[in-house]
Amino acid sequence: MENWDDLRFVVALARYGTMSKAALHLRTNTATVSRRIKRLNETANTLLFQKSGAEWELTTEGRRLFELAAGFSDDLRSFHATTPSGLQTTQTVRVTALDFLVSTVLSKSLNAFTCQHPNVTLELSGNNNRVSLAYGEADIALRLTRPTEGRLVAHRIADIRMGVYGPKNYNSQDWIGLTFDLDWTPEMKNGLAVFAREPKLRMSSFQAILQAIRLTGQPGILPEVMAKEAKELELLQPYEEMRLRELWLLYHETRKEDVVLRSTCRWLEQSFATMTE
């Protein structure tokens, strides 16, 4: 194979599924991705990908090449990250976390991060979507549930207290909860126990719940760290009956010697340690 750089395009297309997403990841355009993949097909004298609906999937031969290329890429990244120059080279670290953690905790520590990591670009993605740490869709994930599958390193870094909050002297008989698919969570079970009825309004995020509380005057479930910033709200249940959610910091085991990733993990841990002070 004459151009090893083409392998980056195989890895990106395999991981992201579409040429547009692969191009975005590689900071190029769709035409370049298509041209590089076509050149690799011709070099290998076989098809490496086949179209499946809106996405591209690896063929058997493509899978073999992807595993070689991905392994080489991860090994090279780990080697570079563990050298003394690892922290001196510009690189990007992508962290995915729930929206409220980004807005109420991590945003307050950004100055500390930029001072500690002048050569690192930090991407904070506020969502709870399933991402593959193995395929590089994110470098670090903060989740309220510990995964039971995958080769992940998991550290419990905080407990997030959840409770029922509402405006002072509220008089509504209704309440605001999360969407039906989240009724299994401790915070929703808590709300159902406190009010003994289904919520009148359901939202997909705690930010939306907070906004709805302010607009309707109805109480709802919120993380304590969010509610403390909303001075007009008060806790509507005994403090000791609030529910705790474990916050887990996750990354793929192949990254455990990565200097920049480890340093970012320390910043995250410090951010949540400050939250409890």
From TrEMBL:
Superkingdom to which the source organism belongs: Bacteria
Alphabetic keyword roster: DNA-binding, Transcription, Transcription regulation
GO MF annotation list: DNA-binding transcription factor activity; sequence-specific DNA binding
GO biological process: DNA-templated transcription
Keyword Transcription included in the entry's annotation: yes
Domain HTH lysR-type, chain residue ranges per copy: 1-59
Family of this protein: Belongs to the LysR transcriptional regulatory family.
Protein name in the entry: LysR family transcriptional regulator
Organism of derivation: Neptunicoccus cionae
Organism placement in taxonomy: Bacteria, Pseudomonadati, Pseudomonadota, Alphaproteobacteria, Rhodobacterales
